[in-house]
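[step 3/7] inverse_fold.run input=structure_tokens len=209
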């Protein structure tokens, strides 16, 4: 994979160097040679675009960092130089202009394909984001349901605690009442025993005397 990438890069470097040389010849070339040079340069541009497409595919397959953007920028600079040469020349014919227009259409088509690819990636990202939102909503709904159940459980527990507290209060009051009554009964029993003892002592005293 790496060897193939290096091969494409070398081919691209040689091709752009050749195009640059031809553009230099086009600047100073004779009128009869301009048309041929222009055709060769445009064919080289198409070949360079094909090489960059293949190179970009290889980079993606290898999962490595891509230098295609830099290569495209370099190629665009060479294209701009070629346009400048054509615009400064008043001797190229209509056929050359038509060929240049065809090349420009190919460039626009490539840009359209690149934009379509970016739109597809954006659409995938939007779909993934929408899926995450749906999953988040489901999780949120489940959490809210759990909180509602826990709230009902807490409220029932509080109700049971209040009932237990009331039962304890009633039991405490009943125990206090029973203790008071037991003390009263014990006090009454002691008083009865004391009175009985006093009466027996008095009766015994009178009986002896």
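[step 3/7] decode complete -> sequence:
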């Amino acid at each position: 994979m790496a060897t193939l990438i290096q091969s494409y890069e070398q081919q691209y470097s040689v091709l752009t160097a050749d195009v640059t040389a031809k553009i230099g010849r086009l600047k100073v070339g004779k009128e009869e040679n301009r048309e041929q040079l222009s055709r060769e340069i445009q064919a080289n541009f198409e070949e360079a675009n094909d090489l960059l497409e293949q190179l970009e595919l290889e980079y993606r397959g290898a999962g490595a960092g891509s230098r295609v953007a830099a290569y495209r920028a370099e190629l665009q600079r060479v294209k701009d130089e070629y346009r400048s040469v054509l615009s400064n020349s008043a001797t190229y014919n209509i056929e050359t202009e038509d060929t240049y227009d065809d090349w420009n259409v190919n460039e626009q088509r490539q840009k359209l394909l690149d934009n379509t690819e970016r739109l597809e990636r954006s659409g995938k990202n939007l779909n993934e984001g929408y899926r995450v939102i749906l999953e988040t909503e489901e999780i949120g709904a489940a959490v809210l349901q759990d909180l509602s159940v826990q709230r009902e459980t807490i409220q029932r527990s509080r109700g049971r605690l209040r009932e237990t507290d009331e039962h304890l209060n009633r039991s405490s009051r009943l125990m206090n009442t029973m203790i008071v009554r037991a003390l009263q009964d014990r006090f009454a029993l002691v008083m009865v025993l004391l009175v009985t003892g006093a009466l027996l002592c008095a009766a015994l005293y009178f009986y002896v005397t």
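[step 4/7] annotate
The radius of gyration is 52 Å.
Helices lie at 2-28, 31-62, 68-88, 94-208.
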